[in-house]
Design goal:
This protein starts with a strand and ends with a strand. It has a three-stranded mixed beta sheet with strand order 1-3-2, covered by helices on one side. The chain is of the alpha+beta class and about 100 residues long. The longest helix is centred in the middle third of the chain and has 19 residues. The protein has two helices and three strands; from the N terminus they run βααββ.
């Protein structure tokens, strides 16, 4: 999955360091293939969906992103997952994150 964008909507009074930490954690979570993190084999996103039918893979991936964010980053929640096709056949995900 290409993480095209993560839009982060946060309370203006929130600490900028915490916002940056959350973004760093989310980028790590969403760019790590599941099964590759020692001692936490569930961490990351399942890449086996790549070869499946596009509409099914997108639905499963959106649900997985929401579940993984709930489990590994409780400071925020997923508001929306949008898939954006490119002209070269790749699909990027736009994940909109808001405060929990």
């Amino acid at each position: 999955m290409d993480l095209d964008a993560v839009d982060f909507i946060i309370d203006p009074a929130a600490d900028i360091d915490e916002r940056e930490d959350v973004m760093r954690c989310l980028r790590t979570l969403l760019s790590t293939p599941a099964g590759t993190a020692p001692l936490s084999r569930d961490f990351g996103i399942d890449n086996s969906l790549i070869d499946g039918p596009m509409n099914v893979a997108q639905n499963i991936l959106a649900v997985e992103i929401m579940e993984k964010v709930i489990r590994y980053e409780p400071r925020v929640r997923v508001k929306e997952v949008e898939f954006i096709p490119s002209t070269d056949g790749r699909i990027s995900a736009k994940v909109v994150i808001v405060n929990a």
